[in-house]
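Protein 1 of 2
SEQ + STRUCT:
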Amino acid sequence: MQVVDHNPNAIVARVQMMFGTIDKGCQIISTRFGLRADSGPSKASGSCQRQLCQQLRKDAEHWQAEHDKAVQHSKAMSDGLEQKEKQLLETHNQLNRTILQKASLAKELVEKDKEFRKTYMQLSTAKEKEAMMRAILLKNTSTNRVSDHEIKDKFLSIRQRAQAISNSSTYDLELGDPTVWGHLTVKDRKNRMMSWIFNLLQRYVLNNKVFCQYQPTYDNPDPKYNIEAELGYIETILEHNNVGEALIANWRIATIDCLSELIGSSPRHKLIAPEIFANFVSVISPKSGTRELHELQEQFQIICDEAWEVAMIMRRSREGHKCIVPPTGTSRCLINTYETLAEPITVEGGKNEDRSDQIAYSLFGALVKGAQYHGESKVGVLEKAQVVLKRR
C-alpha cells in the first residue's frame, strides 16, 4: 500500500512532476507522428509502418497508464487532504467545546465558591447565635433540667468500663500484698479492684467539689491559695449553714461559668488518670507488653474523662444529682437499711446462700437526685449502688 504524503508542498511538486512526465510523453508521440508524416507512404515499407504503429500504440498505452496513475494518485491525495481537513475541523470543534466546557466549569466554580462563602457565613452567624443563646440560658434560666436518661447512660458507661478494667488480662492478681487479699479468690480480687477504681474516681472527681475539668490559666496574686479549693470551702460553709439548695445551685453554676472564663485557648485536662493508674502498677503482670500497657493506660484516661463529664453535669444540676454510697466504713451497714439505695451483687468468700445482711463494701456507687425544685420535693434513685455482702 502506497503511503500518501499530505504535505501541501510535496503534493504540488508530485502533481507537477506527473503532469510534466505526461507532457513529455505527448511530445514524444507527436514527434513520432511527425516522423511518420515526413517519411511519407512511398518511403516506408509496410513492415516499418506496422512497427511504427505498434510502437505508437505502446507509447499511447504507456502514457495513458501514466495519466491514469497520475489522476488516481491526485484523487488519493485529494481524498487524504479532505480527510485531514475533516480531522482538523473536528479537532478544532473539540477544542472549542473544551474551551466552552472549561469556561462553564469556571463559572460554576465561581458560583459554588459564592454559595460556600454564603453558607459559611450563615453557619458562623448561627454558631454565634447559638453561643449567645446558650449564654443567655445559662445566665437567666433557672428551669433548665438535666436529663435523667442522659446522665444515667453516662454513669452506667463509667461502671461498665470500671468492670472491664478490673477484668483486664494485663493484671496478675496473684501479685500484691498477701496480707490484704491473700485469702480472696480471683473473683473477689477482681471485685476489690473494681471497688478500688470507683473509690478513686469518687474521691478525685465524682464526689469532689469541682468547678472545672481543665486546668485554669490565670494570674494568681497569691500562689498559696488554690482557687478551686477556696471555692469548694465556700460551698461547704454555705451547706453547713443551711443556705437554701436553690441558692447554692445558682451560686455554683454561676461560679462554674465564671471559672470557665479562665480556661485558655488550649485547655489542658487535669492529670487525674496517671495518678489513678499508678495505684494499680503493683499488680500489672511482668508478661504484659508495651502495647497492652498502653491500651490499659488509655482505658484509665477514657474512664477519667467520662467521670469528669458526669461530674460537671451533676455540678450544673439544679436537682441535686449526686453519686453516693452506703456508709460501710463508719458503722455496721445493713442491706435492709439501704435496700432502696443498694443492690447486692455477690458475697465475698462465699455463695449466695452464705450471705449475711451486712454490706462489706460498694462495687460502684448509686446515682441519685434530690432537691427542692420550684417548691416540689423530688428525691429518687436513678441507679442503685452495687454492693458486696459479707459472709455469715
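Protein 2 of 2
SEQ + STRUCT:
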Amino acid sequence: MRKYFFRTLQRNKKDPKQGYNWGLDLQAPHLYTIIFPFFYKESVKMNSFKKVFTAGLAAAALLAGGMTASAGFQEYPIGDEQEDTVNHFKVALVYFQPVQMEPEGSMLAADKADIHMETDIHATEGNECGFGIGEWIPYLTVHYKLTKVQTGESIEGVFMPMSADDGPHYGANLKLLGAGTYECEFSIDSPARQNYSLHVDKETGVTGHFWEEPVVMKWTFDYVPRNW
C-alpha cells in the first residue's frame, strides 16, 4: 500500500502542468487500499463508541432504578463500633424498620414494634477460640437495657440469634418509649454460658479461653419516631 501511495505522489509532482499537486488519482485502484481501511477503522471506532455510550446509559438507568427501589430501607448506626481487645471480638449496633420473622411469634410482631435493633459481633485478630477474623461468634447471650434519659424509664431483654441476607447476627423488634435520648447497655456472656465447649487437648485443641464474666458495652443515641 505504501508503494502505490508514493507512486501517485511522484507522478503528480513530475507533471509540469500540475506542479506540486499532492492530490490522489481517484481512478487509481490502489487508492482504495489507502482510503477504505481508514474509513473502516473510523466506522468501527464510532460503532464502538455508540455501543459503549448505549451500555453506559443502560447501566445508569439500572443504577437509578436500584437506588429508587432500595430507598425505603436504611440502617441507622448507633455510635461507633467497639472492640474488646482482651477477648478479641468487635461489636457494631444498628437499627432500622421492624421486620417479619419466622417462626411467627418468636419475637414482637413488626406491626407492634418501633424498630428492629441488631448487633453484629465478629472475631478479631488474636481470637484463639476457633473463630477466624471477621467470623460471627455464635452461642452468645446478648442482654440489652435501653434507658430513656428524659424519664429514666427502661426496657430490657435478650437479643435472639437470627439470619438475614447479610448473614447471622443478634437482634430483636423493639417497642421504645417515644422520642428521646437513649442510653444502651449491652451485657454479653460468652458461648460457655450455653455449654459451648472448646477442645483443649494437645492434638486438636485451641489455645484461647472464653471470658467468665459478662462483657459490658455502652452506647447512646437519639431516637426520632419514623413512619416506616
